[in-house]
Amino acid sequence: MRCAFLAATAFFSIAVTGQQALAADPPYIDDRSDAAAVIRSLYSAINRHEFARAWGYYGDTKPAKDFDAFVKGYDGTDTVEVKTGAVSDEGAAGSIYHNVPVAIQATDKKGEAKVFAGCYTLRQVNGQIQEPPFQPIFIDKGALKPSTADFEEAVPASCGDGPPPPKKDEALEQAKKAFAATYAGQCDKELFEQEPELFSIKYKDKSAAEGDPERETRLFHFACSAAAYNESSIYYIYDDVSGVRQLQFAEPEMDIRYANNDSDGKVESMHVVGFQATGWAVNSAYDDATKTITTFNKWRGVGDASSSGTYLFRNGDFSLVQYDVDASYDGEQNPQAVVDYNTAP
Asked: What is the pLDDT of residue 5?
């Protein structure tokens, strides 16, 4: 019985180990839909030590004198990560040539990582002029050299004769990532996928000397959700001191009293009893002429009861300068200012 138990234990151990090994395998990618996908497929094959598949992504010009030499070149390699940049294309004699900027980080079996960068050229022969067997897009040539840059920054700006691609808007990318990380599960899918509205606000800092240049704050407006009569948005701002941060909106906390405690009745009193902050802006808009964000929150569809705020940009941030409340459900719009820093005393 003890022998049977040990045998079963050994079998279970082997089975679990095998499952773990399979689970740890790098993903299988075999995609020839575009030039960058072929490069990712090449390094998927190398990562999985499927060297025949990797060899097959090349055309007649191979990367080594023979297949054995190609395999031997990866003897000490454990894993390879790959990044691709903006692809440029050019046509010639029935083919399209794709130039792909590439950076890889190769980690050897001792755990030491090295970065290489360069360009691959891939050829796509016009499918209408081919005869069987069909030849899909393939690697025509490629050359990577050791790079001293960090892997995240090592991809060349461009390859071939094309102009370098435009630089990424880093502030916009950071705002998009922050918005996605926080609100992906809270927003309507269609609105969440829309590009944000972008605004640039130029201003003079209050402590600036006469000859100092203008500063810039950037405003990013993300639509998030839409109900029957209210649409909610999220705003981020960016400047060179604080970076990207979500804009918060101050709102007064109200104590509203109705006659006979009936909200459909007459409003007897309204008092501000404190202030709160929220990241949500309802039915909002930014006006560049006045440098203000306005909000308008309908308490019901006809809009006779509501609250609205005006937030003025000054010295790098937005401040609440006016807040109006219409607490009566009387079919008329008759708001009262409960916060007012717009009107002179």
From this structure: 36
What residue type is 208 in one-letter code? A
Residue 292 CB neighbours (<10 A): 18
CB atoms within 10 A of CB 190: 9
Average pLDDT over residues 129-148: 92
Q: Flag whether the pTM goes above 0.70.
A: no
CA nearest neighbour of 98 among 152, 67, 136: 136
Q: Which two tokens stand for residue 28?
A: 């299988």
User: 98: closest CA among 148, 59, 128?
Assistant: 59
Over range 216-235, report the average pLDDT: 97
